[in-house]
From TrEMBL:
One GO MF term: penicillin binding
Protein's UniProt name: Penicillin-binding protein
Gene Ontology BP term (one): regulation of cell shape
Domain PASTA, first and last residues per copy: 604-661, 662-721
Native source species: Companilactobacillus pabuli
Subcellular location: Cell membrane
Main location: membrane
Coiled-coil regions, chain positions: none
Length: 722
């Protein structure tokens, strides 16, 4: 028995020993793993993918971003086109636990009063605002007011702040100001915020100069670092570490505000009267290539965004089109320069067969047998085909290449298209001589025309005058005249200039309507067919791209003016007459530059600076609007103005309508006679859903004048042409 006990004890002792060894080994192994893990964390400062050093810094450091000021965009004289600005988003705290530092209530105490006050400044009714202030969840800390509470101006913010409403706060957001309103808008471009609700968000260019020079304009953000305790309170005596921001550079354009503003007025007038699907007006300094004015229609207001959905590109470089008869400037140049031009040679005008296709003059009956010297002046397609055939297709192609047709100009704008030349068939080769079967952009044509203006030297269009570092004031890039080729001789250029003058002065010239008394203008007119999506070309008297290119003066050009108009929907006048309503007054303005203002420019053609009418009495505001030569429209029964469109600081054309929103009940005005643009202003300032039917001017409205419209639902407006 004792032997058995002894054996049992020995076995138990051995088991204890084994267990002890195992525990010892496990403990040692765990300790080794712990040491390794600790060493790894110490060296890498990482745990579960989390950077512990950064986590600690985040807890005990407060990092505040210092936004760099975005550079300004200015005209050739330093006048502001685009600059830094601030907008505000409004929000309301509804949590009753929220207190100010002094212990006062920092939440909406009186919902009725708050809703009543805010309804005067936001395009929301008192009922709608009160609904926002009463969220479904009682745990909700704060509420916003949808699109109507975003992008508020400093004026509206100040008005609301002055009412001292508990719980009402604002988020300050970086923005972009365009004080001139519609002003080369598609060329200058716009910006967009990375996050429309984040005060630390950046803005970046999404179109035009704003996009092309985004990096230059943006600068580099800085930051401020302060030490805080675990509760986020700044530690006493701690030093703030600051990395300074570097402001963006200022970009000076070649645009001349006086010429540009006048071009905008002319463009707007033509758009309203004739409703073209597209309109372009360009003015280039013939000596330097500087673009002094450039506008298009449709366009949009960069401040309100109205029209943006129909004009999301810069057609001056992003659209390509068949130029039509203005191409004959290059055809005549090539024919003369290559030694193949015989002005006295007779040809049968009217129609000609080329490659199985009949090509006709605009006057299909023709003028009988006429000399080639009249082909350009009469804008004869058949005559141009004759010149192309005399040169030979290869020679003509070589000249088109010399004029850089089908090549990008490299102008400092995003999205430029190169265009193309269709040259496979004999008929296509012939058609390029009068501007069909060839696609160009507007800048390409201006560049090509410059060779005729500069003794054969072709000048690249330029839109940038200089770039100036905002911190040092030093110019980092400067505009300079750039010759990009010499496709023709100086003697050829002189002959083409004289031919362009004859288009205006000869009794059979197609450009007589462009004769400006006292100015030696030379022009070439153009009418280009528009390709049909179903093949061939569209038919109809207005389905063309009409154009005019002019040299001012013809024999020593200072300016090149190029106007194109596509498919006017209200063609109540001839295409030449419509274009002359832009070209002729613009030429008068150009030749008066540097001189005292004369009667050559119509009275009242200057822009009107919109004043601030907020808080003015309704009667005094209406009197002010009348004195400025503007129309007015009043919404509401109140005696004081609480909102206005357009906003103060904008520039508008004489005769445009200012829409005022007053305090008191929001009532429907009588819209009879208002234009569609005016109706859009009404919709924007009221925030109501408005549907328009037809075009022209208002003849009918679904909500009667004087009716309260806070809860009226959809409003239907019917328009008709006069």
């Amino acid at each position: 028995m004792s032997k058995f006990r002894k054996l049992f004890k020995n076995k138990a002792r051995r088991n204890h020993y084994i267990v002890g060894i195992v525990i010892l080994i496990a403990t040692a192994f765990s300790f080794i793993l712990f040491i390794q893990r600790f060493a790894y964390i110490s060296m890498s400062k990482q745990y579960d993918g989390v950077n512990l050093e950064q986590k600690t810094k985040q807890k005990y450091e407060r990092v505040t971003k210092v936004n760099a000021k975005r550079g300004d965009i200015l005209d050739v004289n330093g006048d502001m086109i685009a600059g830094d600005s601030t907008i505000y988003n409004i929000y309301a705290i509804v949590d009753h636990k929220s207190k100010t530092a002094s212990g006062k209530a920092d939440y909406v105490v009186d919902k009725d009063k708050t809703a009543q006050v805010l309804s005067k400044y936001l395009s929301l009714s008192k009922k709608q605002i009160k609904k926002y202030l009463t969220p479904a969840s009682k745990k909700q800390y704060q509420v916003e007011f949808g699109p109507s509470g975003r992008g508020l101006s400093i004026e509206i913010k100040r008005k609301i702040t002055s009412k001292n409403l508990p719980g009402i706060h604002f988020i300050e957001l970086p923005s972009r100001s365009y004080p001139n309103g519609v002003f080369a808008t598609n060329l200058v471009g716009i910006t967009k915020a990375d996050d429309a609700n984040d005060e630390n968000s950046n803005i970046s260019g999404v179109m035009g100069i704003e996009k092309y020079f985004n990096k230059v304009l943006s600068g580099k953000n800085g930051k401020q670092i302060t030490k805080v305790d675990k509760n986020g309170n700044e530690l006493p005596g701690s030093q703030m570490v600051e990395k300074k921001s570097s402001d963006g550079s200022n970009v000076y354009l070649t645009l001349n505000s006086k010429i540009q503003q006048y071009a905008e007025i002319l463009a707007q007038t033509v758009e309203e009267k004739y409703e073209p699907k597209n309109l372009q007006i360009l003015v280039m300094n013939a000596k330097t290539g500087a673009i002094e004015a450039a506008t298009q229609r449709p366009t949009f207001n960069p401040t309100t965004g109205k029209g943006l959905s129909n004009s999301w590109r810069d057609t001056l470089v992003e659209d390509q089109f068949e130029p039509g008869s203005v191409m004959k400037i290059l055809t005549l140049s090539a024919s003369i320069d290559s030694g193949n031009y015989n002005p006295d040679q007779l040809y049968q005008s009217g129609t000609v067969e080329v490659g199985g296709r009949t090509i006709g003059d605009w006057n299909t009956a023709g003028w009988g047998y006429i000399p080639l010297s009249e082909a350009f002046t009469r804008s004869s397609n058949v005559g141009m085909v004759k010149l192309e055939q005399e040169m030979g297709s290869q020679t003509w192609m070589n000249y088109m290449k010399k004029f850089h047709i089908g090549q990008k100009t490299g102008v400092d704008l995003p999205g430029e298209v190169s265009g193309s030349i269709s040259y496979e068939h004999t008929s296509d080769q012939a058609m390029t001589s009068f501007g069909q079967s060839v696609n160009v952009n507007t800048m390409q044509m201006l560049q090509a025309f410059s060779a005729i203006a500069n003794g054969g030297k072709m000048i690249k269009p330029q839109i940038i005058k200089k770039i100036v570092d905002a911190d040092t004031g030093k110019t980092t890039k400067k505009f300079k005249r750039e010759v990009v080729g010499q496709p023709i001789k100086a003697s050829t250029a002189k002959k083409v200039q004289k031919a362009m003058r004859q288009v205006v002065t000869k009794s059979y010239g197609t450009g007589i309507v462009y004769n400006v008394p006292g100015v030696k203008v030379g022009v070439k007119t153009g009418t280009a067919q528009i390709a049909s999506p179903n093949g061939g070309y569209l038919t109809g008297s207005n389905n063309y791209i009409f154009s005019v290119a002019g040299m001012i003066p013809y024999n020593d050009p200072n300016y090149i003016v190029y106007v194109t108009m596509k498919q006017p929907q209200k063609m109540t006048e001839s295409a030449e007459k419509i274009l002359s309503e832009v070209f002729n007054p613009l030429v008068k303005r150009l030749v008066s530059q540097g001189k005292s203002q004369t009667d050559s420019v119509e009275a009242g053609s200057q822009y009107v600076n919109v004043p601030s009418l907020l808080d003015k009495s309704t009667n005094s505001a209406l009197s002010k609007i009348k004195n400025l030569g503007l129309q007015s429209g009043v919404i509401g029964t109140g005696d004081k103005v609480v909102q206005q469109l357009p906003d103060s600081g904008q520039k508008v054309m004489p005769g445009q309508r200012m829409v005022l929103l007053t305090n008191g009940a929001m009532t429907m005005p009588d819209l009879t006679g208002w234009s569609k643009n005016d109706v859009l202003k009404f919709a924007e300032i009221t925030g109501k859903k408005v549907t328009t039917k037809g075009d022209g001017y208002v003849v009918k409205q679904s909500v009667e004048a004087g009716h309260v419209i806070n809860d009226s639902g959809k409003i239907i407006i019917t328009l008709k042409n006069k």
